[in-house]
Design goal:
heterodimer, A: Purple Acid Phosphatase, chain A, domain 2, about 35% helix, B: about 160 residues, mainly beta, two-stranded antiparallel ribbon, 2 helices
Chain lengths: ~240, ~160
């Protein structure tokens, strides 16, 4: 059996094509997997689990619930967009939220899962923002606001973030090599799987004389894809 | 050129003996000895590749000849519809099993001459019957014994011939 990894789908009600690819993925290829790990940014944004009543959010949660009921294990990690996903969403889908990073044994090979944003240490503005929004006290305060107001605030942040992206040098939006090395060292030289940077690739790192494979997951902007790992190793697979 | 007669249709392969001399020769030896007759594509993953040349129907593995040297450093890329040798984690362990890439699988290309970067040796490409490959990649697959992605209905290479 295989384990599948996806991330950076950025699902929203404004991209019906890719939503359809996702629904078909859950009803088709994903059923072959014993586990499906969604490593962050399943959603373009998430205003709070009380937004599960939104028809679009509901349709995604329902599709995931159907998937997990079919017998596959479903796991989520927060992304930089949907970091407010919480227990109620996970329960509605029949899945579970994982810590970032999360270590697991994958067919006998120690593997570390991350969203990947914490590796982009050169983007200081973002890291500052991350510290703020991942603070439980900030989150509690934010979630206490009415849903409408939260959505308006998120929209404002997204606008700023989009305009800043064009200003930022491309290299600061990629992972910092030293941060990758430190992570690999800290976790005893695992295979690393992460998303976030939208630069799908297989990298091989030599750290302290040890070799570590790093897989970067593809986003779901133009088409869907997943990383498939089994006892033979990992391979990115395109959906069409 | 090599012609594979499958129960899904004919696939014609053009080998590249200049870039992959030992690999092409090895493949031709298997073809000429009739080794591939009544073998199956036993690992089919749509969006990735279709692999065969080592098992008979019923997932009975066939005894092979000695493994060959990995010539993946020849510059040929694991592009869509190319054929490459399958192997274990040992770079120099290919024998009879091969796969046809059904996507551009650049991560399989040679990067470094070590266990992690050796890659998978491309030695030819499909020049006729790409639609047969497309049909095979879409078959329903499941688990059979310890193997995943095994076609539910056998995809059989009835015979292979050099043309």
């Amino acid at each position: 059996m295989a384990v599948y990894f996806i991330s950076d789908l950025h699902l929203s009600d404004s991209r019906p094509d890719i939503n359809q690819v996702f629904f078909e993925f859950l009803r088709g290829p994903a059923l072959q997997a014993e586990s499906l790990y969604i490593l962050g940014d399943l959603f373009e944004y998430w205003a709070g689990d009380d937004d599960l009543g939104d028809p679009f959010n509901h349709s995604i949660a329902t599709a995931l619930a159907e998937y997990s009921r079919s017998g596959s294990v479903l796991r989520f990690m927060h992304g930089n967009r949907d970091f407010l996903l919480d227990g109620e969403f996970a329960r509605a889908c029949g899945g579970r939220l994982l810590d970032d990073p999360y270590a697991l044994d994958l067919f006998g090979k120690p593997t570390l899962l991350m969203h990947g944003d914490t590796l982009c240490t050169d983007d200081l503005d973002y890291q500052k923002f991350r510290v703020q929004v991942r603070n439980p006290i900030w989150q509690k305060g934010f979630l206490a606001l009415p849903l409408d107001q939260r959505k308006r605030q998120i929209e404002a942040v997204r606008q700023t973030s989009e305009s800043e992206k064009t200003r930022k040098a491309p290299e600061i939006m990629d992972v910092n090599p030293a941060a990758v090395e430190a992570t690999l060292r800290e976790h005893a030289y695992p295979r690393l799987i992460h998303g976030h940077t939208h630069r799908p690739a297989r990298h091989v790192h030599r750290v302290d004389g040890r070799t570590c494979e790093r897989w970067v997951l593809a986003d779901w902007y133009r088409t869907g894809s997943y990383l498939r790992c089994d006892e033979h190793g990992c391979a990115p697979v395109q959906l069409h | 050129m090599v012609r594979l007669h499958t129960n899904f249709g004919i696939i014609e392969l053009e080998l590249d003996p200049e870039r992959a001399p030992e690999t092409a020769k090895n493949f031709l030896t298997y073809v000429e000895s009739g080794f591939y007759s009544n073998t199956v594509f036993h690992r089919v993953i749509d969006g990735f590749m279709i692999q065969g040349g080592g098992f008979e129907p019923g997932m009975r593995q066939k005894p092979t000849r000695t493994p060959i040297k990995n010539e993946a450093g020849n510059g040929l890329k694991n592009g869509r519809y190319t054929i490459a040798m399958a192997r274990t984690s040992d770079p120099h362990s290919a024998s009879s099993q091969f796969f046809i890439n059904v996507s551009d699988n650049g991560f399989l290309d040679h990067t470094k001459p070590n266990a992690d970067g050796w890659g998978y040796c491309v030695f030819g490409k499909v020049i006729q019957g790409r639609e047969v490959v497309d049909k095979i990649k879409g078959v329903k697959t499941g688990k059979r014994g310890s193997h995943s992605d095994v076609p539910v209905e056998d995809v059989v290479i009835e015979r292979a011939e050099v043309i």
